[in-house]
Amino acid sequence: MQDEKIAKITEMLLGGGKMLSVHCGACKGPLFEVEGKVVCPVCGEKAVIAKAEVKSKAAPAEKVESVLLTKLNSLAEELAKETGHDKTLELLDRVKSILEVLEKLREG
Length: 108
Ligand SMILES: [Zn+2]
What we know:
The protein has helices spanning 3-14, 60-81, 85-107, and strands at 18-23, 30-34, 37-39. By secondary structure, the protein is α+β, with helices and mostly antiparallel strands. A 3-stranded antiparallel sheet has the order 1-2-3. It is globular, with a radius of gyration of 13 Å. 19% of the residues are buried. It binds zinc ion. Zinc ion binds at residues 24, 26-27, 29, 40, 42-43, 47.
């Protein structure tokens, strides 16, 4: 994942966005729920939900993904409250690692 994309995703997480288990059909980035709207950190509100993502049967990889998403969203909350420099960097590092694992899962 590109650093620029990670920066945008992190920014959205810190802004109160919740990362969803669906990705953008246009740029393949993870979609977020912000104030009840589905938004792509890269494309904005023009996000297109990929059709393949809308399925009810959960594959094992999706279970891992949902655990990671829960973790990611709670890390983001922690990060938003954190004021210490070292701790902030540590949390950012963990957010980045999770995003990288999610990316790998999505590539299949
Ligand atoms: Zn997008």
